[in-house]
Design goal:
Elements: H1 3-10, E1 15-20, H2 27-37, E2 42-48, H3 59-69, E3 76-81, H4 85-91, E4 96-101, H5 104-120, E5 125-130, H6 140-148, H7 159-172
Parallel strand pairs: 1-2, 1-4, 2-3, 4-5
Bound molecules: adenosine-5'-diphosphate.
The site of adenosine-5'-diphosphate (ADP) has 16 residues, from helix 2 and strand 4.
């Protein structure tokens, strides 16, 4: 590699992708977003458009909520994908996947996922962030369970998400 090529590669932006369902985004996700955004030039939070799950919020709604709660973090972008994750990453010139780990149970599944992605594309690595212990029990499913029965979720999700949950369940009657 000559000096010119080396300085070009030194300048390459470090881009990571944080994929997930985010149905809806919680303080646990937001904590991972804030911490990992500090480690990269750009962080793309990518909503998985997965037709086999039965989401409460549409992909567009989930993206809007993510955009709203990350609007003060300049190097965070919101996107969505339905293709293979590694292919989406290539299209964005990203080579690091961020995932959050809450428990040993998360770890087993995440290890399988990371190994598969690495098998599909050996250039791509997964980095794990341990949850903030405050949020180790927190998941989007728990939030939905509580909100569905009009429980208080203000310590679990940002206010805009809390409001949207209320509207969603009120509309469903
Ligand atoms: P998925 O359906 O891909 O698991 P989620 O939206 O549930 O999507 O989670 C996306 C990522 O965020 C996963 O890596 C998950 O482990 C992580 N995550 C979810 N909740 C928390 C939390 N409370 N603390 C840390 N990481 C979390």
């Amino acid at each position: 590699m000559n000096q010119n090529e080396r300085s070009q590669s030194d300048k390459k932006e470090r881009i990571a992708v944080y994929p997930g369902s985010f149905d809806p985004v919680t303080y646990g996700h937001l904590d991972i977003i804030k911490r990992s955004a500090k480690q990269f030039d750009r962080l793309i939070v990518a909503v998985l458009n997965n037709t086999s799950k039965n989401p409460l919020f549409s992909v567009e709604e989930r993206k809007q909520l993510l955009a709203e709660v990350t609007k003060d973090i300049p190097n965070v972008e919101i996107d969505s994908f339905r293709d293979l994750l590694v292919r989406f990453m290539r299209s964005k010139d990203a080579d690091v996947i961020i995932r959050g780990i809450r428990s040993v149970t998360d770890f087993e599944y995440e290890l399988q996922l990371a190994s598969t992605n690495h098998l599909l594309d050996g250039e791509i690595d997964t980095m794990f962030m341990m949850t903030n212990p405050k949020y180790s029990y927190l998941s989007s499913s728990i939030v939905k369970e509580i909100a569905q029965f009009k429980g208080d979720v203000h310590e679990l999700v940002p206010q805009v998400v809390e409001e949207r949950l209320k509207e969603k369940y009120a509309a469903r009657g």
